[in-house]
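Q: what does this look like with 3-O-alpha-D-glucopyranosyl-D-fructose bound?
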Amino acid sequence: MRRRWPAVERGLATLYPAHAARLAALLAARVGQFVDARPEALFQRDLEREAEPDWFQQPDMVGYVAYADRFAGTLAGIHDHLDYLGDLGVTYLHLMPLLKARDGENDGGYAVASYDEVEPRLGTTTDLRALATALHERRMNLCVDLVLNHTAPEHEWAVKARAGDRTYRDYYFFFPDRTMPDRYERTLREVFPTFAPGNFTWLPDAQQWVWTTFHEFQWDLDWSNPDVFAEMISVMLHLADLGVDALRLDAVPFMWKREGTDCENLPEVHELLRTLRAVMAAAAPATIFKAEAIVPPDQLTPYVGAGDPPQHECELAYHNQLMVLLWSSLATGEARLMTNSLQRVAAIPTHASWVTYVRCHDDIGWAITDEAAARTGWNGFDHRNFLNQFYSGAFPTSFARGEVFQFNPETGDGRISGSAASLCGIEMALAAGDTGHLDLACKRLELLYATVAAFGGIPLIYMGDELGLLNDHSYLDDPAHADDNRWVHRPVMSWPVAARRTDRTTLEARLFGVVRSLMADRAATPALHGGASVQVLTPADQALLVFVRHHPVRGSFAMVANFGHSTRAFSLAGLDLTAPCVVRSAGVDFEGPAVALAPMGYAWFSAPG
Ligand code: OTU
């Protein structure tokens, strides 16, 4: 605390000048009590991680993302599948929102009714603690969602606010008429234009408008209120006390509002994250933050902060640019836009890491700006439109079977839902009984996973991708899900299908083997430490993605990948590595320094530092 507290006090003074002293004293007392009562095993974990702050950057870090109920029924059920995760090499289990959600529609748990309780369908806080302990015994970490931008209207703060309680009204944004909402709306965008148009919801009983960026059942919290900050610290401490290793901070860009702006990524959001970070670093250094900020490239890196520890924000941040550009490259058969755009994402500082991913529970939003497209000589709108056509299967040469999500007729914008396997062509190839295309489709999926496993940071396996699970249309039968096609790629795990992974003749065995061996090769490559720098090169052949990573102690690494539709040549001399050796390759012919890569072919190299 002695070390961290000056940063807490500075942050509070900036955010809440009139209340800073009172708040700092209150939080200091709360943190003091928390540390005194900290269970011995977790206190030990705090000490270990202070001594080894790069624990989450080790090359054996592998994430797995699942809904607890869809993966294993309940939290207790997960214990039965820890061997499965261990087999894949998983060391970081991210369970989707598991705190008590409102009944009925709740956006997959992102409408929280109580931060103190686990969703009763999934279990209890005792179950959560037991799961964390079991994971820790296996050297696995637990990541849990913290939805801190909004609550459900059923949360007791919201219930009181709705009933007119002044204290709790100030936890949210209430307006008696349209004057302020209309002024804000001039510069706000709509996140869910189809099923939640506008950013405010009328409450007839309260005769008030309330700010709802997402659904009408997700009320934005007013973080300019110091009481909200103090409440959320208690929530974080409680989760840390249960043994949670990483908090996925949902929708952080929206946490501060100012009229005349889009109310995303404002400087105060970063001040908030720095200050939350400083409090938690004093109380529970074993628990880290992961930023969920799905934002343009220039806005992304700031979410981890820079410089000395007091300036740090989240240790981890989703690399949504890499994800989007991978899909874009697959559709266009060239890596030019990816190369150009990745070169413009600011380097991540060495104290932090990306989480890299191919698919997640959300749609793919084409975060490719007009400027980025123009640098490649393309029209941004046309390219984004092409990607929607391509991944919804409408484009003539498409191999994908996805669905358009949230098409906005006013702006022409749309996003894509669909499982990785269906978007890679596996669904189409299976339906056509085309074994040649099935092989190529599997290679596409492998190429995407090989890239995220090597690019830097923790790669996330999205549940089902390791088995090639296809789109699941059964969500249409559930009224709470039917209007939200993101459920098409949120399948229920089929353990009988998973069991086929041991039969070498099956598709499941092929894909599971690919993912497992990728993660094993990654773990065995010291240069893949998350602290290594990444440099995306500009190869002469624009079908290729080429990047090199350098770690001052652990050596260098390079990946060459062919997104083109034909075989491409590459000279290893272009990597500028001394004595590179091949860690892994697929679809590659080596003849001295010359390399020929088949479509979707790739190679990993390592070299001494
Ligand atoms: C997140 O996503 C979650 O991942 C979604 O599943 C939730 O619906 C949503 O928050 C509300 O809780 O807009 O399209 O920059 O882009 O937070 C998904 C961050 C979203 C937002 C992101 C949000």
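The pocket of 3-O-alpha-D-glucopyranosyl-D-fructose is lined by residues 107-108, 110, 147, 191, 214, 250-251, 253, 292-295, 361-363 (CB under 6 Å). The two ends are 38 Å apart (CA to CA).
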